[in-house]
Amino acid sequence: MSDSSKGKRPLVADRHRTSKSAASTKTAASSRKSTKTPAKRRGGRGTPPRRKGPIGLLSALVRWVFRLIWTITWRITAVAVLMLALAVGYFYTTLPPLEVLLDGRARGSVTLKDRYGEVFAWRGDQFGGIVTADSVSPALRDAVIATEDKRFYQHFGVSPRGIASAIKINLSEGRGPLSGHGGSTITQQVAKLLCLGEPYDASSGQTEKEYEAECRRTSLSRKAKEAIFSMAMEAKYSKNDILSIYLNRAYMGGGAFGAEAAAQRFFGKPASALSPAEGAMLAGLLTAPTTLAPTNNLDRSQDRAATVIRLMQDQGYLTKAQADSAIANPAELSEAAEAEAGGYFADWVMSSGPEFFTRNTTEDVIIKTTLDQKIQQAAEAGLKSVFESKVREGSKAQAAVVVMSADGAVRAMVGGRKTKVAGAFNRATQAMRQTGSVFKPFVYAAALDLGYSPNDLIDDAPYCLNIPGSGEWCPKNYTSNFKGKVTLTTALKDSLNIPAVKLSESVGREVVSRVAEQFGIKSDLAAGPALALGASESTLLEMTGAYAGILNGGSSVKPYGLIDLSLQGDSEPLMGTGGGIGERVIQEDAALQLVYMMSKVVSEGTGQRAQFGGRELAGKTGTTQANRDAWFIGFSADYVTGVWMGYDDNTPLTGVSGGGLPTEIWREVMVRVHEGLPNTPLPMIVPAPAVVQAPEPKPERQPDRQPVRRQQRENPLGIIDQVLRDIFGR
What we know:
By secondary structure, the chain is α+β, with helices and mostly antiparallel strands. It is built from 26 helices and 18 strands. It has a five-stranded mixed sheet. It has a five-stranded antiparallel sheet with strand order 5-4-18-17-16, with helices on both faces. It has a two-stranded antiparallel sheet with strand order 6-11. Strand 13 (562-567) and strand 14 (575-576) form a beta hairpin. Helix 4 (138-148) crosses helix 13 and helix 17 runs antiparallel to helix 24. The chain is elongated.
């Protein structure tokens, strides 16, 4: 069968089938070939095959290096992120509850109130109470954010953009990258206020000042730690919590820590009630709280507040109309902050109270005092009036004023011509000055208590004493004249020195010293006869307190300013006053007679310039050797006031005596003090009129020549007798 088929021609149908089969096979092969070609050539049609040369090797090397760097970088980054997370986590675990961080003062505060319960001064680290970002005035909150950290609610505790901007500014101004602008966020500032969680340790040997300086030190390592601590706070607390810490701990000048204390200190209102102008002023203080404090320079503080208001407008917190209104009506200080009444007085009260409740208190203390703000303002105004109108411009002369009640309660105190001060030298309490003739009333007090009378006579005539070791001492009057026999009242009225010394020697210097000491003059008193002329030194406060003892009827007083002291929030005081009326020194009749004698000083004597309003007034002038000190201390029935004037370096006063400018200052003060007060007579005993004594018999005088000659003419024998007497003597 196979043989027969060899010679036959193929059928047409067979040829068609074979052709299709071959075509199909060829198409399949072609298809396989086309699918393999791209895989082999990769680059597609027309792409040349990869060449193995230097460029290819270099390209491969670069790719390998980048792959290596990337591998190392992401691993290092991963390690760094892990370490950062661990550091943040560590600080997170050390952060205390929010409440612990809201009051971070090292010391407590002292709030001083006047006799009527009104606040007039603050000392220590004032803290008005805890506030939150939600409880303060929105104007204050917005002002702080606009000024300190406008992206506060967007960042995670650190602002890279802010840091970069600060570095750029510092470098452009020629400073180091970390000097000057810090680019710190509010969170970073809180971290610094918390000293990065490192509490002060007294046992470390580091002072608080050194500790605070360390907390504020700027270095790369410190900034890095600050950033980590800030991120931990962002993780631990909410944004409003962090802002609340800032609003409570930031120092805002004037001794005020936190928004509430500052609002009360400067504006006399809570932080929740601040206007945009007031909020802007407080926010402006955060840059330089001491320099910009409105109590230091109100104009500068208002200018800074205007800048803050413009920032608030730019950031959309205020409309243009609101901003214009706030700038046109800047914040003003409260009456207490504006007056700053009792700067010297407040310092004195703080120094007279227990240290652990005043200068170094860790508690918030309330002290009620004897100060009368109206009288304080009168004292300041009276002093200023005389210096502006009657003292030459540029004079360095100083003055001090003390006003008190008869029981020793100090109502006002001015320790120098600059009245709006704190911590300054107080000439009313610290300056030891020679007293001069203002000491003389205590010589007369001793005499009156021993039974002398205001009308007793004493001889104002030349007088000398022999002082062992010093020789002869002869006191002289201020006028260098002598008045002969005068009453004790006249001697005091005219401030005669010789009668005062004679009287002191008569009653005994020891008696005079004892009376003066018991009246409250505790300074070392002179031992010699010059004691009577005020050779001893004392303070104005001591001398004014001693005169209060005369006014109250002869009992000693201890000047005091503190009525009671209590802790903030307590209803019962911890302690009461440490002064007031003490033991009787002289008999009441003697004191009332002395008041009468001193009233004559004002009505007829050296203190006549003190008179005003037809009131009964009493006092005594005093001028020391070489006019180094000039005094006038006197009283009405209501108040005792002492005035001292002089130079701090003991330069003699020119043309000033106790009866001059000090008396005029006294009058200007007392006129203001007595506004609206009834005219009350002085408590005094007017002595019975002096008995006029018959004149002493004059020495017999020899008859003059004329009568003798008349006798001679009438009796010639008498002429012979007279001649013989003239020749041979009588």
